[in-house]
Amino acid sequence: MRLSIETLSDKLNHYSPQVFISDKNNLSVRSAKFLINSITVFEPEVLYVGKVSGLASLLPLKGHANLLCISDADIFPEYKENPKLNLVVLPKTADIFQVFSEVQDIISTYQKFAQSSEKLLDTLIHGKGVQHIIDIGYELLGNPISFGDLSTKIIAYPKYTGPINSIWDEHIRNGYLTYDAMCSPEFKNMMKLVNRSKSPVLLKDAGKYDCISGKVTIDGIIVGYITVMGSEKPLKTSDIELVALLCEVISLEMQKDKFYKNTKGAVYESFIKDLLDGSVNDPEVIEKRAKSLELGLRENLCLIVVDIKHFNAQKTSLSHLRNTLENLVAYSRSVIYYDYVVLIVNCGEKNTLLERDLMLLEEFLANKQLHAGLSRHFNNLKDIPYYYKQALKAIELGMHHNGKKALFIYEDYAVNHLLDICSDHHVDLKEFCHPALFKLMEYDRKNNTSYTQTLYIYLSHKGNQIKSANALNIHRASIAYRIEKIEEIMDLKLDNIYTMHFLYFSFTILEYSNELRLTQATDISG
Fold this sequence. Notes:
Elements: E1 3-4, H1 5-11, E2 18-21, E3 28-29, E4 31-34, E5 46-51, E6 65-70, H2 77-80, E7 85-90, H3 96-125, H4 130-141, E8 145-149, E9 154-156, H5 166-174, H6 179-183, H7 185-196, E10 201-203, E11 211-218, E12 221-229, H8 237-254, H9 258-261, H10 269-277, H11 283-292, E13 301-307, H12 318-328, E14 332-337, E15 340-346, H13 355-367, E16 371-374, H14 384-402, E17 407-409, H15 410-424, H16 435-447, H17 451-460, H18 465-472, H19 476-490, H20 497-512
Parallel strand pairs: 4-5, 5-6, 6-7, 16-17
Antiparallel strand pairs: 1-3, 2-7, 8-9, 8-12, 10-11, 11-12, 13-15, 13-16, 14-15
Helix pairs in contact: 3-4, 3-8, 4-8, 14-15, 17-18, 17-19, 18-19
């Protein structure tokens, strides 16, 4: 990274310089010298500082030259259009010694900036992480520095223990800003200034010390803020450029994280991620953070988890998919978490999702060839990891037993989950089946009958003979005969509620174990 004569002249913009660039192959500036009449050969990458009146004795040039001159005489065309000359002209009122000092400072600062860039680039290439970048930032700036995400959670800060001010100290101590701090006029004004500015902002009179704050963005979306406090030494304008560089480098580093790469810039996102990770489980901390972020999720919650591992993001972006899901499910907050879109839904006092919402959601998922799991209801944000796993289990079990569906409700698979846990412990689940059911299955096999299916339909309709007959498309008298025959074969009565539950549970075990496949033309859920 080299300093060009054009960049340097921009730094001297307060002089309203005139810039005449003729030799574009000789733009770099590494050092500065005074222009004297005895010079016959100009060194490359050196800016010579002098007066326009001294140019006449130098022409014709024997080599390429970069010059910065005070306008104490006329600027002739041969100066402006000389193919070997790049010329910057300042007004005659400028003090040559002051200008020379400023040029030296600019070159020195830029060289330090270039060295800093190389060090930060090395950190980025070798994947040393955000903390290492912030540690380097502390070393380069010589002042306390922190990086927090959009929820104000501290991601990285150097080991600096000295007190600075109440908000900073509280932020570092807690790891996030409290509701009162985020509502303070001081914080709100700072955020307003920083968010409006394209580059980091030097904030004076922001407290005991000045500070520099800049936003870190990914694809134009804010993901966090870098803040530097001038408590160790006064902040300089040149520090703004270094903070801007730190913002760029951290942005590149953060893009390696799929979560931040897919963020939509909502302040609550990283907090929900922390909840899903289980990294925050103190009820008091959860309550305070939820309040400070105005999350609006209190009681009667549930999770909808959408599997996006095979989603084609080339046709529809993940952010569009996520926004659509939020619009379909009222009162929901979402994050993209690993290979899933996770929606936390506030179900309200009725403790249930709107039937219309679920219908539209399932229709949308089916159209996109996606699958989702719906957890049970819960009231405590701390329990989110448990119910996240529950929704994932609904997808897993649902895909195993009925892959044609798009939305799997955990409640429908809770028994299967129990059986899943038992099978993981190498338990022979058939041992828990009613032995009489095997007698009926064996009778069907030997006699080519379908009494097993009849029993399943009968149990599914809670012993209602009329509904069972309709489901089987047979006369009521026929179902009565079949039930009597089934009781004879199994040597038991089907008028006992415990026996009926036991037999139905046995069917569930056999279906789960793929020991029994029952085909039926009619819905048995009624």
